[in-house]
Design brief:
Layout: E1 5-11, E2 21-27, H1 29-42, H2 46-67, E3 69-74, H3 79-86, E4 90-91, E5 109-118, H4 125-134, E6 137-139, H5 142-151, E7 161-162, E8 168-169, E9 175-183, E10 186-192, E11 203-208
Parallel strand pairs: 4-10, 7-11
Antiparallel strand pairs: 1-2, 3-5, 5-11, 6-11, 7-9, 8-9, 9-10
Helix pairs in contact: 3-5
């Protein structure tokens, strides 16, 4: 008779519009004994092993997500329409059509090739844009960021994603740049005032030139 040890892992990194990604690992009796022996020898508990597996899955998905992003932007849409389609759980009050209008006045559907850039801690907007351009990319606009959030709603759960091409100067003269953010399962549209001192967690959306 066969025995199976079933590990059900739940991950909030969702890539197929599912609430949770469940992974079942089937282990026969011999394999289970070997696994438990290794765990005991190395002092690992079952929760620690599950945590290691989750981290490995997370890293794999993160690497795949930053490689290449191909998506179509429909410039006939409006900013309010795309914010609504994105179904965000919260939105900064400064994120609006007035503060971040469409920079491309076309009404065409255009296929874009994008990439997410993770650069050094404390990098300035100017330097980040320069590095992207050297690799053949330009910074994304807010409208393009909205399409990314709509088409790939789970990417922002991995890390904040910034559109460096769009800047709003508020009534106090502070520079604000829009980015996709998340808090657990909640997704949002936020503004950052970092501008010239970006933290390492931020990723910048670049569009192939």
């Amino acid at each position: 008779m066969s025995f199976y040890g079933n590990f059900l892992l739940s991950s909030s990194l969702k890539f197929r519009n599912t609430k949770k990604t469940k992974i079942m690992i089937k282990i026969n009796a011999l394999e289970l004994r070997k696994l438990l022996a290794v765990m005991e020898a190395r002092g690992f508990s079952i929760p620690e092993v599950i945590s290691l597996i989750r981290k490995n899955i997370s890293q794999q998905e993160k690497n795949e997500s930053t490689d290449k992003l191909v998506f179509v932007v429909d410039y006939s849409k409006t900013v309010p329409e795309m914010i609504k389609l994105g179904r965000y759980d919260w939105k900064n009050s400064g994120v609006s059509k007035k503060n971040f209008p469409k920079l491309n006045k076309s009404s065409d559907k255009i296929k874009l090739s994008g990439k997410l850039f993770s650069l050094e801690w404390g990098i300035s907007r100017k330097k980040a844009i320069s590095k992207m351009k050297k690799l053949g990319y330009r910074p994304a606009t807010f409208f393009e960021l909205l399409f990314l959030g709509y088409l790939f709603p789970n990417l922002q759960r991995l890390f904040p994603i910034v559109a460096l091409a769009s800047v709003w100067d508020d009534e106090h003269g502070a520079h604000s740049i829009p980015y996709l953010d998340a808090n657990g399962d909640w997704r949002g549209l936020s503004l950052s005032y970092l501008f010239d001192d970006w933290e390492g967690k931020f990723h910048f959306l670049g569009i192939k030139i």
